[in-house]
Structures are given as C-alpha cells and as structure tokens.
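Annotated sample (chain length 296).
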Amino acid sequence: MKDGTNNSSAAWQLAAADSKRYCNELAKSVPAWLQQNGPHSNIVLSTRIRLARNLANYPFPSIADNKDLNSVNNEVWEVLSESQLLPAPHFIDMARLLRLDREILVERRLASPQFIERKGPSMLALTPDESLSIMINEEDHLRLQAIQPGLAIAAAWDAISKLDDRLSENLEYAFSERFGYLTACPTNTGTGIRVSILMHLPAVVMLDEVEEIMKSLASRGMTMRGFYGEGTDANGNMFQISNQLTLGKTEAEVMSEVEKIVEEIKGFEHLCRSRIILDKGNFMLDQIWRAYGMLR
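Output written by the structure step:
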C-alpha cells in the first residue's frame, strides 16, 4: 500500500490542475462514438463495456477515508502516467468541477450519475478520443470503460481487456479464487463485466411494447434502463440494454448473451417500424411535416 501523505496526494491533483478547462473543451465537441457510423448505427448508438476492479489492501470507496482514497488516486495515477496504458491520458479531479462540468461528463457517457455525486477524492482518466477511460473511486476503486460506436462488442472487449491485463501487472487487484474479482456490489462480483448497449427504439415506444421487452429481459438476467443507466429516464426513446449478473459466467458468455438479445431487440424495432409505416403512415407523415414546419 502506498502512503497517504500530502505530498503523495498532491501528485495526482497537480496532474489534474486543468480539469475545468478540459471539461469546457469537451463541451464544444461531439463524442467520437457519435461522430462515427458503427455497425447497425441506425438503431444501436454505442457499445460500452465496463470492468469493476478494486485494489487489495484498501477499503472499498464507500467506507474508505480520504487518506486511502487519495492513496488510490495517486497509485493509479503513477501507473498511468509512467506507462503507455492510456495514450496521452487526461486526468480530471472531480472536486475541481462545477455541477455543470460534471453533468457534461455524464452526457458523454464518461462518468456515471453516481460518480459525480461522490464527496471524497475521485478522479477520471481518459484518452483524447474518449474511447478508453477509468473512473477512480466510484463505487469501486476502478471502473474501466471502453466505448465504441454502433454494435461493436468484440472491438470494445479487445480494447478494455488489454488495458485490464496491463493494469493488473502494475496494481494488485482484490481477487478471490472462489468468487473472482471482489466488488462493492455483489452483482458485479466474478468477472466484474458490464456490457451496455445504447439503443434508439422509437417504434417500440410508439407501439407501447417497452414493458414486454423489460419483462423478457428480466427473466433472462438482463436489464433495460434509461439513457444514463440505473434510475434514469429513457430520454429520446434511448435505452441501455445490459447484463445484471457476472458471478458464475465467463466474459465470453456474458458478451454472447447480450449480443444475442440486442440482435433480437434490433429485429423487433425494425418490425415495429414496418408496422407503423403500414398502419400509421399518413399520421407519421403529418407529424414529420408539422415538425419540419416548426423548425422553419
């Protein structure tokens, strides 16, 4: 365990001195995962894979004191700054940000709503294109994230697994031979993987089929949430489809199950769109022209 002295803590804070300016720059650009047309991007906006990891010898963030949280920040910062694990990484000290700055990070899917509410020392590390990032001291010490445009589970997994492997060579993870990776929430224990697919499902919403899909997903160990994840609304008819449990399953099994379900939902959305065109074609044209008229 590294010490939690003020000098040690100051290192990562100094590296993140331009946090607010960097967030202001982010607000002026479009995330890379929205700029590119990924596979099936007419329905699937993005693929995100997160891995929950904790460091051995430190309490979970929810019960750790500021000294331990600072030490975790500094230990991770040292590894990232002295290696090429994240190319040209940016470091953001969450304590330096105003509320609006924090919300920008949530909108760009770089931070969870829970992360921006944390009171203790916490940090976000990310690549310039935002395809790889790490929330440090969220619910777990580390939340590794890879995000790709469209339906691209294999590409996201390739990126995040390489990052995870190299981090594990430099950091001592909390791991049990019996349970796998130890996490603050039991549902993440095991592989610690969470695969989340952001889908645009306007036709499913129009035909009032959302509840049926949610019931079906729950019976298969999956969940359907709003744009920002757990406890959020489906703004703009956008939903996150993700796995709920990781214990007892391999990463490959989880990814395969999620991809199969997403393909089913994608097909159902296409079917619903066809039904709307056949049954409500004139109504839809009227709505389109009304919207166009308002824009003019």
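Annotation: The CA atoms of residues 85 and 166 lie 7 Å apart.
Annotation: Residues 1-6 have pLDDT under 50 and may be disordered.
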